[in-house]
Amino acid sequence: MAEAGEFLIDGDANAATTVVLAHGAGAPMDTPFMEAFARGLGAAGLCVVRFEFPFMRARRREGNRKPPDRAPVLLDAWRSVIAALGDPGTLVIGGKSMGGRMASMVADDVGVKGVACLGYPFHPSGKPERTRTGHLESLRTPTLIVQGARDRLGKPEEVAGYALSKSIRVHWLEAGDHDFKPTKASGRTLEQNWQEGIAAVADFVRGL
Description:
Layout: E1 2-4, E2 7-11, E3 18-22, H1 32-43, E4 47-51, H2 54-62, H3 71-84, E5 91-96, H4 98-110, E6 114-118, E7 143-148, H5 156-159, E8 168-173, H6 190-206
Parallel strand pairs: 3-4, 3-5, 5-6, 6-7, 7-8
Antiparallel strand pairs: 1-2, 2-4
């Protein structure tokens, strides 16, 4: 892993495709989850770039827990990162929860190669009626959503009822929660679900 300004970079810097990952609402870009996906995709031969939204950078500087920025700020941050990385046609953008959601909201406008969402927040916890799927109905950019099968922000039976664009594919991780952690009864481990998710994203990127 290398640092370049405010980016963390893993994998092959000369790879034909760069995967850009943003963090979620509650944790930064260097959590075990983000580290696992960045290193795993890097080991698969991709260049992986991570960055943080302004509110998270402020948390690091000031040491206090700031709430997430409002959507316009988050979307502008994504556009700035994409512009800084060069040709958007070489980029697959996405990330954890909120980070992936915001990526999917700018994808069509900026012309990226694809979107990879890791645990999409289809609705707030406990509020399934407040869906966050409007833009997903007309999304043109090829998109992979890797989702835990028991994610409280979007379970299989809920997602099956959404009118999602044909450009979107959902890969379900057995017994996984929003962080892909499975139940003990499933017989699966967190590492297995992470590795399956990494493989799904790598295969998706190769197929673009």
